[in-house]
Amino acid sequence: MKQFENNEIEVLLRKLAETERAKSSRLLGEDSAEEHLDPDELSSFAEGRLPAATRSFYMAHLAACDRCRRIVAQLATASGASSAIREPAVEEQGRWTFLAKFFSPTVMRYAMPTLAVVVLAVAVFVWMQRESATKMALRQNAEPATQTVNKELNGALADRSSDSTPSSNNSVAPEPSEAHQAKADSARAAASKETAEARSAGTKSANAKPADAASSETAASTPTPAMQEVEVYAPPPPAKGEPETAKSVAQTTDEAEKKERTRTAPTEAANREEQAGDKSTAARRSAAASAGRISGLSVMEQKVAATRSVGGKNFQRIDNVWVDTVYTSSTPTMNISRGSEQYRALIGDEPGLRTIAEQLSGEIVVVWKGKAYRIR
Amino acid sequence: MKLSERDIEKLTREGAGRLRARADDRRSLKAEALTGRIRKSIDKYLLRTNDEATAKDVAEFIDGLQADDLCLIVSCEAGDQNAWTELVERFSSTVRSAARSASSNEDAAEDLTQSIWAELHGLRRRADGGPAGKLSYYSGRGSLAGWLRAVVAQLAIDEHRKQSRLVQTEEDNELDRLVKDAPEGAFAVGTSATMYDPEETIARNVAGSELQDALACSIKELSDEDRLLVKLYYFDDLRLREAAALMGVHEATASRRLTRIHTELRRKVSAILIEQRGWTAAETERAFAEVAINLQTDVESMLQPVSIGKGIKSER
Q1: Is residue B137 less than 8 Å (CB to CB) from chain A?
Q2: Which of A232, A302, B206, B250 has its CA 20 to 30 A from that of A111?
Q3: Which of A10, A12, A57, A101 to mutate to test the interface with B (most CBs of B within 10 A)?
Q4: Exposed, middle or buried: residue A329 (CB in 10 Å: 0-12, 13-18, 19+)?
């Protein structure tokens, strides 16, 4: 509608112009008392050479004076000054127009949020890179030390096995600490009652029984070939305030030895078992012997042997339980049994947890996505 | 802060030195020979419209002058024949071309050309013996070629008016006689269809003329810039690009301005017709539509509203 109305005005304007031209052609003979612009003013205006304030001054005259305006129009057309005038105006505005367009509200409305998203994405990427680099560095630092300690432990085991009985020699073979632990875990699982009693007797702190004592107890009840191999993991870290020294380790091992002796069958029975080639007895003895030798391991070696890194998480062996280092007692814990429907559902939904559960045998306490799960 | 006379003179002297240094051919001119011309230009184009011009404004203004053209003209004024010869050689084609454009035939163009050079050189002599021509009116702000074309255009118009005055007088008398002797209704306006209804035709023509009067009044009420744009585009038949260039704006800017002007004119015309002529809004809208259609089909009908109005009662 507006365009149609404007078209009507356009037609009327053109007709009015024709009328005016016809009138002015008849009035050519009349002298106009009106003062006209001189050629210098006309040419300067036509070429756009006048300051802005002066241009406005002459615009008023040109709008009213047909004669001067027509001369200006002719000058502009004939000399091509229109392009010359237009180019400087456009050129001067070009730079600023470009900048103005670049920073116009319309552009900024979309550019700023986009820029913010890009900056955020870059920041997140950099942070993630740093995090992964840090984790890699931690793993790399832990692995060589672990490997070094494992080698020394293996060496120590080899030495111990050479001191034990021939039968035990055959049975005791230097294996990686993880294999030792796996076998000890299976023995422990069969004697879960005794381990539970041992656990209930103390906390997860230094009062926990040494692993070798537990293993020896387990061996006493359920002799297995695994018992001949010493579970060479360090005792659980001492509670707060308690110094973690070899001396305390030795003390616990001594206690384990005493218990071992009290629990073992009479000598005659032991002899009978030994004669029967019962590996468990030999294992007990070797375990007892090893317990005494455990104190020979350095504290660091014991520490490293009792920690594992699985699935990006660090676990400590505490009272026969692999405990996530980030776990705290205040964390709500859900108990899940291996093989249960709940367990299957959990590991089905969380592949990371599955990896941990598969690599760590026995009881595990893992913190996963803000929740603690005790898998046994 | 307004510049003092002393400051302006100092700036003029300094500017004259820079201008002379810029010129490719100084023509043995001294800076003092240019200061007078430069000062006139400053007074005419800068200080007249800007009392608060700064020293920077003055310096920039002087640095924008056409150094070579100004030195040439000043040398011509000083009586340098070499400069005058160069002026004629360089710009004779420009003058001839402008004269041809402003004249109806080749002879008139040649006469006009000769008149131009005579005007430029001047038959009179100044007190110092130099020719008192129109060269002194060149300020150096625009190009010398443009100034010469403007001189030709003005002179051509003056010449045409002189000749037209004699011719028009006879034609007007003849026209008046024809109108007087013509039978009634011989100059009826409107389309061929409306000629069968004289009353309606007359009414339509009256409405059209009132519409155009209102439009003419509305145009006068526009701002100087808007009015100039309308005149350049509609009355002088310039292309929008050329009109925009003269206005110092981009073509798109001029187009947007015209659209706004159309809307404003329609509003003003409607207001004039309703408030001053007693029309109703419906009559106004109908008149716009009908007159526009008629104008598109009959060009000549709108050129004689005055003649028709003589014999009938007009609301004007």
Answers
A1: yes
A2: B250
A3: A12
A4: exposed
Partners of residue A317 on adjacent β-strands = A322
Task: Place A107 in a pLDDT band, splitting at 50, 70 and 90.
Answer: confident
Nearest CA in chain A to B168: A26
Q: Cβ–Cβ of A59/B242 closer than 8 Å?
A: no
pLDDT above 50 (res B192): no
For residue A5, what pLDDT is reported? 59
How close, in Å, is residue B249 to chain A by CA atoms? 7
- Whether residue B93 lies within 8 A of chain A, CB to CB, comes out as no
Torsion angle in degrees (nearest 10) through CA of B155, B160, B162, B168: -160
CA–chain centroid gap for A65, Å, is 78
pLDDT in tens, A177-230: 555 555 555 555 555 555 555 555 545 444 544 444 444 444 444 444 444 444
Q: What pTM did the predictor assign?
A: 0.51
Exposed/middle/buried for residue B218 (C-beta within 10 Å: 0-12, 13-18, 19+): buried
Q: Is A365 within 8 Å of A373 (Cβ atoms)?
A: yes
Does A89 reach chain B within 8 Å, measured CB to CB? yes
> A85 to chain B: nearest residue by CA?
B245
Structure confidence by residue, pLDDT tens digits, A162-186: 554 444 444 444 444 555 555 555 5
Q: How far apart are CA B227 and CA A62, in angstroms?
A: 9
Q: Average pLDDT in the A137-152 region?
A: 65
Q: Answer whether A39 sits within 8 Å of B137, measured CB to CB.
A: yes
In which order are the strands placed within the sheet that holds A363-368?
A307-310, A313-318, A321-324, A363-368, A371-375, A333-336
| B-proximal residues of A, 12-31, CB under 8 Å | 12-22, 26, 28-31
Q: Using the beta-carbon criterion (under 8 Å), do B49 and A79 form an inter-chain contact?
A: no
- Angle (CA) B172 B175 B180, round 5°: 125
Q: Are B303 and A19 in contact (CB under 8 A)?
A: yes
Asked if B231 lies within 8 A of A69 by C-beta distance, the reply is yes
Q: B112 touching A, CB under 8 A? A: no
* Chain A residues inside the 8 Å CB shell of B45: 44, 50-51, 54
| Nearest one of A166, A170, A162, A259 to A216, comparing CA atoms | A259
Per DSSP, which regions of B113-169 are E strands? none
Chain B residues with CB under 8 Å of A77 CB are: 238, 242
Report which of A212, A259, A251 is spatially closest to residue A234, judged by C-alpha positions. A212
Would you give the DSSP letter of residue A265? P
Q: How far is CA A372 from CA A328, A341, B91, B157, in A?
A: 9, 18, 98, 102
Q: Where are the beta strands (DSSP E) in chain B?
A: none
- In sequence order, the β-bridge partners of residue A335 are A374
A77 touches chain B (CB under 8 A): yes
Q: Measured between CB atoms, does B79 come within 8 Å of chain A? A: no
Write down how long chain B is: 316
**What does the block give as tokens for A298?**
């350095």
To the nearest 10°, report the CA torsion of B286, B288, B294, B300.
140
CB distance B228–A54 less than 8 Å? no
Q: Is A181 helix (H, G, I), strand (E, B) or coil?
A: helix
| Pairing verdict, β A363-368 and A371-375 | antiparallel
Joined together, the tokens standing for residue A271 give 């002899």
